[in-house]
Design a protein that fits this description.
Length: 370
Amino acid sequence: MLKKIFIVSLILLVTTLIFFGIYTIAFKQDNKVQVKKKNVADVVDIVSKKITNITSDPIVAATLGPNGDTIRYYDAIDGRVWTMTLRGTNKEVLFSETKGVPKKVQWSSNGDQSIATYANGDIFVHNYTTDTSNKLRDGMDSVVWAGTSGKILYKYYDNTSKERTLNIANSDGTNWKKIADLPFRYTTFTQIPSSILASFWPTADANTKTVLSTVSTINKSTPKQIFSDVYGADFSFSPNGKKILVSSAIDGGKKTTLGIMDSNGQNYNELMIPTIIAKTTWSKNSKTVYYAQPNDVPEGAIWPNDYNEKKFKSQDTFYKLDIETGKKERIIELDDITEKIDAIDLFVNSAEDTLFFTNRTNGLLYRLNF
């Protein structure tokens, strides 16, 4: 009898263990499937919408923060400076003091300083590391950063002599010196990256022949003309300073096109891309240009004059260009662009998998995931 009881008990135990094992295995597999499905669903939620606005109010200008993991921007409603993540979350006021809404802002290359120009002509340089603000002296105009040196380039007009000059100074306006006379009333200029040279040219106008010149920022010297024979041109130097992206007006401004050339103005190559410099940005390695290509342009519009004067807004598509091979690649399909976008002030994140831009249609900041 004891032997039979033992055998029956053993059989029940084995049976129980077998069922428990089957249940355990089945439960784990089902659990794994559930986790996998959840992960897939999360990814789909993230990437299903490639383009979205990340500010609720219009902005003046935006840039990457010092570590490349935040965005800083001026609010176009009250002029305050904000910081947030690249996804547009965790928004905080970086600088609450405001002198109104600036009409133009120039951010330093690493986002730790800004040059804000106001409608009354006042120009302030703010350092967000030291939390200091300096008003530049009257007469200084079109102030831009002189590379990564912490200095500024600016145009100065002398009411007595009627001379227009290009000057360089510390970011607070001290220790300034003249580096060149400017022959144009309206002039655009920039520091050439990885160089002691600055470049300047007449502000883009379809009716004005463009002459691009370079000059030393170390001391006053005679400017050197390196490129001409185009009209309404604007320029953007690659981050390594070796290439120049050119947009120019053709056929009297009825069309616009991009070209590229060496930093000395040689080996110009027409790219046959109908856009302007304001709709482009370089990759950090100087090998790729990201750009917005305008469509739905009114018949008879003159480039770049009518666009700069905001007489119309375009409907853009987005591409990237390999400057070595000339290969163009669309970075978002037309069906994924669900609203009217007129993109300016483009920049990419450090990983170069996200493009940021301001939409002139509504003034909001957008992100586009590649």
